Amino acid sequence: MPGYRFQALVTSLSSATHCPLAVWRYYTGRADCENVIKELCEGFALPTLCLEKFWATEAALSLATLTYNLSVLFQRHLGWQQKVTIHSLRFWLFVTAGVLSHPRGKTTSKLAVSQRERAWWRRLWEKILSPLPNCNAVENRPTFTS
């Protein structure tokens, strides 16, 4: 049936003690674990986090996991429906050149953004600086119209 997604779950949980909706919620919550591990490996160099001391390795892993979680929260705040990798965030947002200036005592950020990307950046800053969460989502990728 077009437009519908079907799913079958095989479990050892008893139907007498667990309703089907609770089973579905339990397994759906765990379904993205492999993708998170893959993102940590690719975007945060998880396999290279083995340090000489155990506690140093644990601290590095905790910092990578915290960074991943913050990037996911950032994406949710922007209203993005699809997950974006840390590589994409780094490319679109974090490596944008800019200068902080203080004209007339007001802190200003001047970003080196091309003319065709400015509308997307303007919407992004409006969403980030909005004191109230709203439904005005910013699209995942800057649209390049010229």
How would you describe the overall organization of this protein?
- With about 150 residues, the chain is mainly α.
- It has a domain at about 35-110.
- It has five helices and two strands.
- The chain has a two-stranded antiparallel ribbon.
- Strand 1 and strand 2 (about 110) form a beta hairpin.
- The protein is extended, with a radius of gyration of 21 Å.
User: Can you tell me the overall shape?
Assistant: extended
Give the helix level as a range of percent. Answer: 40-55%
Mean pLDDT: 82
**Alpha plus pi helix count:** 5
Contiguous runs where pLDDT drops below 50 for at least 5 residues? none
- Give the strand content: 5-15%
**Gyration radius, in Å:** 21 Å
> How many strand segments?
2
Structural class designation: mainly alpha
SSE sequence, one letter per element: HHHHEEH
Biggest sheet: strands, sense, closure? 2 strands, antiparallel
Strand order of the largest sheet: 1-2
Distance between the termini: 40 Å
